[in-house]
TrEMBL record:
Top-rank lineage group of the source organism: Eukaryota
Keyword line: Coiled coil
Gene: HNT3
GO molecular function list: DNA 5'-adenosine monophosphate hydrolase activity; double-stranded RNA binding; mismatched DNA binding; single-strand break-containing DNA binding; single-stranded DNA binding
Gene3D superfamilies (alphabetical): HIT-like (3.30.428.10)
Region called Disordered, residue ranges: 226-269
Pfam families: DcpS_C (PF11969), zf-C2HE (PF16278)
GO cellular component: nucleus
Transmembrane segments: none
Protein's UniProt name: Aprataxin-like protein
Compositionally biased tracts (Basic and acidic residues): 234-250, 259-269
Residues in Aprataxin C2HE/C2H2/C2HC zinc finger domain copies: 164-227
Annotated GO biological process: single strand break repair
Coiled coil segments of this chain: 72-99
UniProt source species: Paramarasmius palmivorus
Amino acid sequence: MSNLSILRTYAQKPPSEFPSSVLFTHTERTLTIYDAYPKSTFHFLILPRVQSESEITLKDLHSLKTLLKCDKSHAKEVIDALAKDAEDVKKEIESEMVKRYGFKWQVVGAIVAALVFSSTFRPIWTGFHASPSMHHLHLHVLSADLCSEKLKHKKHYNSFHPKLGFFLHLEDVLGWFEAEPSYFTQMAKLDEKKYESLLKEGLTCFHCDKEMKNIPTLKEHLQSEWDAQASKAKAREERKRKAEERKKDTDSDDVETATDEHQDKKQKS
Ligand SMILES: [Zn+2]
Ligand SMILES: [Zn+2]
């Protein structure tokens, strides 16, 4: 079995046949698996399962491009199902972030940039590759860090860079359906050549836009961006804890004062 078509094989397999190291969760319509080569601290793939009564066939589910050639409302149903199940996976990741690392991280950036690239500035990114290497449609769900030992090449990094354009945010793809039909047609073309040229662009940090000389430099820089966020979050927690302690102290002072006053009144009467 070729590695390229492993997702297609998965999509036709009953969930009970998966080892727990592969399958994270499933619903009637989707399977969520661990990405075998995670490019972030948390990285999952959500695949649509073939529905026996649906007009959308396994062949249609080959990629986003093939799906978008189908009847628009049927295509939308498939993407909506992925989006719905992605919400649950996102919640699980966010709670794991807090449980394991004590905070939820996200892209650092100015408020204006956050408004323009609203999908980028979330702790979890969900999206499709414009020109995927694996067969069978899959939605990437990953934490916003790209800190992983499996991230080894420029094309890996650029394919997930949240502002470069090769990574198509789910929110944007859903937006195509709401836009003018001509815009939908334009975007649905998904011209591989055009998108693949993006993978050759220079390396820039997705937090601060700084140019990076090579992958080792970039990886070190991304780690330091994450570390900085982690220590800020820690300091924030510490301040919160101290403030709560102070509040507790003043609260018990209040109780004491109240009791004193009460005593005074008693003595006076
Ligand atoms: Zn992919
Ligand atoms: Zn940076």
